[in-house]
Design a protein that fits this description.
By secondary structure, this protein is mainly α. It is 35% helix and 0% strand. 15% of the residues are buried.
């Protein structure tokens, strides 16, 4: 095994394929520990704020139930507070939030 650190997308279990944006996003160019170090949350979010894939990343994290780290510019506690309306504008059942 090489000494290279793994990115979060390298260890995601049981997911059929990685979305292409994971390889293209700026987070792929920095130490993967940044996204899971609570003391580095603000630094991680600054990178997310520059990313064109932020919405896709957030949707992915919520869809797959990511419980740790910064995804789509939000920490795990922030993601827990999201609703369907926050992600999609309206709830999926057609009722306004």
């Amino acid at each position: 095994m090489s000494g290279k650190k793994k990115h979060a997308y390298d260890i995601i279990p049981l997911r059929p394929t990685r979305p292409a944006w994971m390889l293209l996003a700026p987070c792929n160019q920095v130490d993967p520990d940044l996204w899971h170090d609570r003391e580095q949350t603000l630094a991680a979010k600054k990178i997310c704020n520059t990313c064109q894939f932020r919405a896709a990343c957030l949707t992915y994290a919520v869809t797959w139930g990511e419980r740790e780290g910064v995804w789509g510019g939000l920490s795990a506690p922030q993601r827990k507070e999201l609703t369907e309306a926050d992600l999609f504008g309206d709830s999926l059942d057609g009722k306004a939030a």
